[in-house]
Write a structure and sequence with these properties.
By secondary structure, the protein is α/β, with parallel strands linked by helices. Helix content is 36%, strand content 18%.
């Protein structure tokens, strides 16, 4: 009898979907150890043929010390947390699952816009209403999204969805993309010139680019200079797209009114430290944390592992 391929799931997944998918295969055995640290993963991975992760870092040491490893699947689009050169050198296929968490991330960015730009004070009003002494409604004035100008940098799966949401709310939308994309509404402007977008006096700028050597610190001092005073910056892509020192200066001189940044704790901490006046919000990589995205990614990563080990079929291979 042929040996089962062993696949380590080293990240939290939907356990109901895990059970359902495991029942569909007799040749792949999934082992669920979501609490492994990066250091523990380096030791544990030597026992497996495949690995499923989400944002968890997969180091070169983990790959080098795993002679049976044939496949790494990243639940999500970005694979910068994986030592790709090592994977390539040792013949380990790396796959991802693009698009499955795009709606969740776009909605998160949109909710951040509403919170920071509109400031409708719903929670404060609800708390005071419970006391029976909420005060005058005029003390809870906020703003509207309709008519506000938003610049969306990146028109991939997330940026595209966000553009449609903003358009539906009557916002003036300009999108930056290196190549023109087909959009369903002619009112949504496109440009391949980042400077043109930055100089458009946007109320809000939202970043939706993958991290690469070309996009790291794509928003730095010269980009902040081109923004309107009082801009709100949303970054649900990667914190490293923004230069921290330039960000701190933009907060101090009023270029940035507020911001929302989502990412791993070690990546958002410099931004937390730079915000001396607590003008914005940082969250610890929760932009795509919805039950729907969680289930979809679990199903797709396990499906790709089964296809790879049962049939030799590669899906969404990036390395």
């Amino acid at each position: 009898m042929a040996m089962k391929a062993r696949v380590l799931i080293a990240e939290s997944v939907d356990e109901n979907v895990l059970e359902q998918m495991q029942a569909t295969t007799k040749s792949v055995r999934f082992e669920y150890k979501p609490d492994l640290s990066v250091a523990e993963l380096e030791l544990e991975l030597a026992n497996y043929d495949g690995l499923i992760v989400r944002p968890k870092v997969v180091t070169a040491a983990a790959i080098v010390n795993s002679p049976n490893l044939k496949l790494i699947i990243r639940g999500g689009a970005g694979v910068n947390s994986i030592a790709l050169e090592s994977a390539k050198s040792f013949g380990v296929a790396v796959e991802n699952t693009p698009g499955l968490n795009s709606q969740a991330t776009a909605e998160f960015a949109f909710q951040a816009m509403i919170r920071l730009s509109c400031n409708r004070q719903i929670s404060r009003s609800a708390e005071l209403a419970l006391t029976g002494n909420a005060g005058s409604p005029e003390d809870f004035m906020g703003s509207e999204l309709q008519g506000k100008k938003v610049g969306i940098i990146g028109l991939g799966n997330v940026g595209f969805r966000l553009a449609l949401m903003c358009h539906a709310f009557g916002m003036q939308v300009t999108c930056y993309s290196r190549s023109e994309k087909v959009l369903p509404f002619r009112e949504i402007r496109q440009t391949n010139d980042l400077n043109e977008l930055l100089k458009a006096e946007n109320d809000i700028i939202s970043l939706h680019l993958p991290l690469s050597e070309q996009t790291r610190n794509i928003i730095s001092a010269k980009e902040f200079i081109r923004m309107a005073k009082g801009t709100i910056l949303i970054n649900t892509a990667r914190p490293q797209l923004v230069d921290v020192l330039a960000f701190a200066q933009a907060l101090e001189n009023g270029t940035l009114q507020s911001y929302a940044i989502d990412g791993d704790q070690d990546q958002i901490q410099p931004f937390i430290d730079a915000d001396k006046h607590k003008l914005g919000i940082c969250t610890h990589h929760i932009a795509d944390c919805t039950y729907e995205a969680h289930a979809a990614i679990t199903k797709q990563t396990m499906h790709q592992a089964i296809e790879f080990f049962e049939k030799g079929i590669e899906i969404n291979r990036v390395v």
